[in-house]
Amino acid sequence: MTLTLPDEPALAAFREDQLRLELACALYSTRGISRGLAAKLAGLDSEAFEAELHARSISNGTQPSDLDADLAALDQLLKA
């Protein structure tokens, strides 16, 4: 895929890798793409992308209630 940007001085200040990271973070934050695909788009491994998300305060989408449900399911499995 090729993305053509307007020839604007403000955009010329960004390197390609910076724009890829910005796009990846924005698309992931709106859940437009998965974390794995976003990391690939950004050109980062999963740990580096996760660190970038953390630095930008972008949530991974997990809610405390998700953890409660997972713990309850695990508790049921261990009792069986």
The Cα radius of gyration reads 18 Å
Query: Helical amount among residues, as a percent range?
Result: 55-70%
Poorly predicted runs: none
Main sheet: strands, sense, barrel: none
- What overall geometry do the principal axes of the alpha carbons give? elongated
* Helix run count: 5
What would you say this structure looks like, in words?
- It is a single chain.
- This protein has 80 residues and is mainly alpha-helical.
- The chain has one domain.
- It has five helices and no strands.
- The chain has helices at residues 9-12, 16-29, 35-42, 46-55, 64-79.
- The longest helix has 16 residues, at 64-79.
- The N and C termini lie far apart (50 Å).
- The model has no long low-confidence stretch (mean pLDDT 91).
What is the strand and helix layout of this fold?
Elements: H1 9-12, H2 16-29, H3 35-42, H4 46-55, H5 64-79
Summarize the structure.
With 80 residues, the chain is mostly helical.
Task: Please describe the structure with a list of short key phrases separated by commas or semicolons.
80 residues; mainly alpha; 5 helices; 65% helix; elongated
